[in-house]
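Chapter review: from sequence to fold.
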Amino acid sequence: MGFPATSRADLLQASRRNDLIVETGRQIQKDFGEFGLEVHFSGTAQLFYEELFGQMKVHVASLLSDNMDRFMHFLYRIDISETDISMYENQMADKDYDHVLTELIIHRELKKVITRDYFRQQAKGTSGQGVLDE
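The C-alpha coordinate string follows.
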Protein backbone atom coordinates (compact mmCIF):
# COMPACT_ATOMS: atom_id res chain seq x y z
CA MET A 1 0.00 0.00 0.00
CA GLY A 2 1.49 3.33 -1.07
CA PHE A 3 1.27 6.78 0.42
CA PRO A 4 -2.29 8.16 0.33
CA ALA A 5 -3.10 9.91 -2.91
CA THR A 6 -4.71 13.32 -2.51
CA SER A 7 -5.81 14.38 -5.98
CA ARG A 8 -9.19 15.99 -6.41
CA ALA A 9 -10.66 12.59 -7.37
CA ASP A 10 -9.13 10.99 -4.27
CA LEU A 11 -10.64 13.72 -2.11
CA LEU A 12 -14.05 13.03 -3.63
CA GLN A 13 -13.62 9.32 -2.89
CA ALA A 14 -12.58 10.03 0.70
CA SER A 15 -15.55 12.34 1.11
CA ARG A 16 -17.77 9.24 0.98
CA ARG A 17 -16.33 8.07 4.32
CA ASN A 18 -18.43 9.66 7.04
CA ASP A 19 -15.73 9.27 9.70
CA LEU A 20 -13.25 11.27 7.60
CA ILE A 21 -15.82 13.97 6.93
CA VAL A 22 -16.66 14.38 10.61
CA GLU A 23 -12.96 14.47 11.50
CA THR A 24 -12.39 17.10 8.80
CA GLY A 25 -15.19 19.22 10.27
CA ARG A 26 -13.53 19.02 13.69
CA GLN A 27 -10.14 19.93 12.16
CA ILE A 28 -11.69 22.99 10.49
CA GLN A 29 -13.26 24.05 13.79
CA LYS A 30 -9.90 23.66 15.54
CA ASP A 31 -7.87 25.56 12.94
CA PHE A 32 -10.36 28.41 12.61
CA GLY A 33 -10.76 28.50 16.40
CA GLU A 34 -7.02 29.05 16.85
CA PHE A 35 -7.55 32.37 15.07
CA GLY A 36 -10.62 33.29 17.12
CA LEU A 37 -12.96 32.39 14.25
CA GLU A 38 -15.97 30.42 15.40
CA VAL A 39 -17.31 27.70 13.12
CA HIS A 40 -20.25 25.52 14.14
CA PHE A 41 -20.53 21.91 12.99
CA SER A 42 -23.18 19.46 14.15
CA GLY A 43 -20.99 16.44 13.47
CA THR A 44 -23.40 15.15 10.84
CA ALA A 45 -21.38 14.11 7.79
CA GLN A 46 -24.28 14.61 5.38
CA LEU A 47 -24.55 18.28 6.41
CA PHE A 48 -20.80 18.96 6.41
CA TYR A 49 -20.54 21.15 3.31
CA GLU A 50 -23.83 22.99 3.83
CA GLU A 51 -22.98 23.77 7.46
CA LEU A 52 -19.35 24.76 7.08
CA PHE A 53 -18.82 26.35 3.66
CA GLY A 54 -20.89 29.48 4.26
CA GLN A 55 -19.44 30.11 7.71
CA MET A 56 -15.91 29.60 6.47
CA LYS A 57 -16.42 31.83 3.43
CA VAL A 58 -17.57 34.71 5.64
CA HIS A 59 -14.42 34.39 7.78
CA VAL A 60 -12.19 34.13 4.70
CA ALA A 61 -13.75 37.24 3.13
CA SER A 62 -13.42 39.13 6.41
CA LEU A 63 -9.75 38.18 6.83
CA LEU A 64 -9.04 39.11 3.22
CA SER A 65 -10.55 42.57 3.59
CA ASP A 66 -9.50 43.38 7.17
CA ASN A 67 -6.08 41.89 7.84
CA MET A 68 -3.98 40.40 5.06
CA ASP A 69 -1.05 39.62 7.39
CA ARG A 70 -3.33 37.63 9.68
CA PHE A 71 -4.86 35.90 6.67
CA MET A 72 -1.44 34.91 5.32
CA HIS A 73 -0.53 33.54 8.77
CA PHE A 74 -3.81 31.61 8.75
CA LEU A 75 -3.02 30.08 5.34
CA TYR A 76 0.49 29.22 6.55
CA ARG A 77 -0.97 27.52 9.63
CA ILE A 78 -3.26 25.40 7.46
CA ASP A 79 -0.34 24.74 5.08
CA ILE A 80 -1.64 26.34 1.90
CA SER A 81 0.91 27.63 -0.58
CA GLU A 82 0.70 30.26 -3.29
CA THR A 83 1.04 27.40 -5.80
CA ASP A 84 -2.06 25.72 -4.32
CA ILE A 85 -3.99 28.99 -4.58
CA SER A 86 -2.94 29.52 -8.21
CA MET A 87 -3.91 25.98 -9.15
CA TYR A 88 -7.36 26.34 -7.60
CA GLU A 89 -7.86 29.78 -9.15
CA ASN A 90 -7.18 28.25 -12.57
CA GLN A 91 -9.51 25.29 -11.94
CA MET A 92 -12.29 27.50 -10.57
CA ALA A 93 -11.89 30.60 -12.75
CA ASP A 94 -15.65 31.25 -12.66
CA LYS A 95 -15.74 31.59 -8.84
CA ASP A 96 -14.98 34.53 -6.53
CA TYR A 97 -11.59 34.54 -4.79
CA ASP A 98 -13.07 33.95 -1.32
CA HIS A 99 -15.05 30.98 -2.70
CA VAL A 100 -11.89 29.49 -4.26
CA LEU A 101 -9.93 29.92 -1.02
CA THR A 102 -12.72 28.40 1.08
CA GLU A 103 -12.88 25.37 -1.21
CA LEU A 104 -9.09 25.04 -1.06
CA ILE A 105 -9.13 25.20 2.75
CA ILE A 106 -11.74 22.43 2.91
CA HIS A 107 -9.68 20.24 0.58
CA ARG A 108 -6.46 20.92 2.49
CA GLU A 109 -8.11 20.04 5.79
CA LEU A 110 -9.45 16.83 4.24
CA LYS A 111 -5.94 15.99 3.01
CA LYS A 112 -4.64 16.37 6.58
CA VAL A 113 -7.29 14.00 7.85
CA ILE A 114 -6.67 11.46 5.06
CA THR A 115 -2.94 11.51 5.77
CA ARG A 116 -3.47 11.05 9.52
CA ASP A 117 -5.89 8.20 8.85
CA TYR A 118 -3.40 6.56 6.49
CA PHE A 119 -0.63 6.59 9.08
CA ARG A 120 -3.03 5.44 11.80
CA GLN A 121 -3.96 2.45 9.60
CA GLN A 122 -0.27 1.76 8.89
CA ALA A 123 0.50 1.79 12.61
CA LYS A 124 -2.32 -0.66 13.26
CA GLY A 125 -1.00 -2.96 10.55
CA THR A 126 2.55 -2.99 11.88
CA SER A 127 1.54 -3.46 15.50
CA GLY A 128 -0.11 -6.79 14.73
CA GLN A 129 -3.57 -5.54 15.67
CA GLY A 130 -4.90 -5.55 12.14
CA VAL A 131 -7.47 -3.20 10.71
CA LEU A 132 -10.84 -3.86 12.27
CA ASP A 133 -12.69 -0.67 11.55
CA GLU A 134 -12.90 -0.80 7.76
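Two observations follow directly from the output. The chain has six helices and no strands. The radius of gyration is 16 Å.
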